[in-house]
Amino acid sequence: MGRAVTVATCALNQWALDFEGNLERIFRSIDIAKSKGARYRLGPELEICGYGCSDHYYESDTLLHSFQVLEKLLESPATQDIICDVGMPVLHRNVRYNCRVIFLNKKILLIRPKISLANGGNYRELRWFTPWSKARHVEEYFLPRIIQEVTGQETVPFGDAVLATKDTCLGAEICEELWAPNSPHIEMGLDGVEIFTNSSGSHHVLRKAHARVDLVNSATAKNGGIYILANQKGCDGDRLYYDGCAMISMNGETVAQGSQFSLDDVEVLVATLDLEDVRSYRAEISSRNLAASKVNPYPRVKVNFALSCPDDVAVPVCMPIQWRHHSPEEEISLGPACWLWDYLRRSKQAGFLLPLSGGIDSSATACIVYSMCHQVCLAVKNGNADVLADARRIVNDQTYLPEDPRELCKRVFTTCYMASENSSQDTCNRAKLLAEQIGSYHINLNIDAAVKAVVGIFSVVTGRTPRFSAHGGSSRESLALQNVQARIRMVLAYLFAQLTLWARGVPGGLLVLGSANVDESLRGYLTKYDCSSADINPIGGISKTDLKNFIQYCIENFQLTALRSIMSAPPTAELEPLVDGQVAQTDEADMGMTYAELSVYGKLRKIAKAGPYSMFCKLITMWKEICTPREVASKVKHFFRMYSVNRHKMTTLTPSYHAENYSPDDNRFDLRPFLYNTSWSWQFRCIDKQVSELEKKEGISVVEDVD
Question: Which residues form the CN hydrolase domain (predicted)?
Answer without folding.
Answer: 5-275
